[in-house]
């Protein structure tokens, strides 16, 4: 995350547990908004791309061990971007991308060797909830998924001495 100081320039803010927790909380709120819009639409959702991303992500891990970090991050980013984009709201998509949680995860997971939870299972549950247009189920799974992300970030930040 960048901060701007007039007449001094741009500075990279250190990542702390507090900042990443706040970023994940905002991400969850934006995903909840997208899901509320999505579940009230009567149009087909076209979830095939999410299914493809589930399968692509499977190749990036063995159990909880990450075997292809770059592809792991890319498929995770594409998965969440697609969910947001299903709401068909350009402003929501723009704000979500500016939040850049996936960029933060890339920084956090630079040396990561394993996930902190069942990300693939959580993604599959999210797709199932979308398929059934089950807003409450999606929220429940999304909360769990956000906690997994926070846990991964916290572990990485603690290993780095408190900031990244």
Average the pLDDT over all residues and give the rounded result: 90
- Low-pLDDT ranges: none
Q: Can you give the helix content as a percent range?
A: 55-70%
Q: Looking at the structure, what is the overall shape?
A: globular
Output the helix-strand order.
EEHHEEHHHHH
Main sheet summary: 2 strands, antiparallel
Number of strands: 4
Secondary-structure content class = mainly alpha
N- to C-terminal separation?
11 Å
Question: Strand order within the widest sheet?
Answer: 1-2
Describe this structure in words.
It is a single chain. The chain has 164 residues and is mostly helical. The protein has seven helices and four strands, in the order E-E-H-H-E-E-H-H-H-H-H. It has helices at residues 17-40, 48-58, 69-86, 90-99, 101-108, 119-131, 135-159; strands at 2-5, 9-12, 61-62, 65-66. The strands form two sheets. It has a two-stranded antiparallel ribbon with strand order 1-2. Strands 3-4 form a two-stranded antiparallel ribbon.
Task: Describe the secondary-structure layout.
Elements: E1 2-5, E2 9-12, H1 17-40, H2 48-58, E3 61-62, E4 65-66, H3 69-86, H4 90-99, H5 101-108, H6 119-131, H7 135-159
Antiparallel strand pairs: 1-2, 3-4
Helix pairs in contact: 1-3, 1-7, 2-3, 2-6, 6-7
């Amino acid at each position: 995350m960048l901060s701007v100081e007039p007449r001094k320039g741009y500075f990279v803010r250190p990542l702390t547990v507090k900042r990443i927790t706040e970023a994940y909380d905002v991400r969850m709120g934006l995903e909840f908004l997208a899901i509320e819009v999505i579940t009230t639409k009567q149009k087909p959702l076209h979830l095939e791309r999410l299914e493809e991303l589930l399968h692509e992500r499977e190749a990036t891990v063995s159990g909880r061990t990450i075997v292809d970090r770059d592809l792991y991050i890319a498929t995770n980013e594409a998965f969440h971007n697609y969910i947001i984009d299903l709401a068909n709201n350009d402003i929501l998509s723009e704000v979500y991308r500016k939040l850049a949680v996936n960029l933060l995860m890339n920084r956090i997971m630079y040396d990561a060797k394993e996930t902190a939870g069942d990300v693939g299972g959580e993604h599959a549950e999210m797709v199932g909830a979308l398929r059934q247009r089950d807003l409450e189920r999606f929220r429940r799974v999304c909360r769990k998924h956000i906690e997994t992300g926070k846990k991964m970030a916290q572990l990485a930040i603690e290993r780095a001495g408190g900031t990244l």
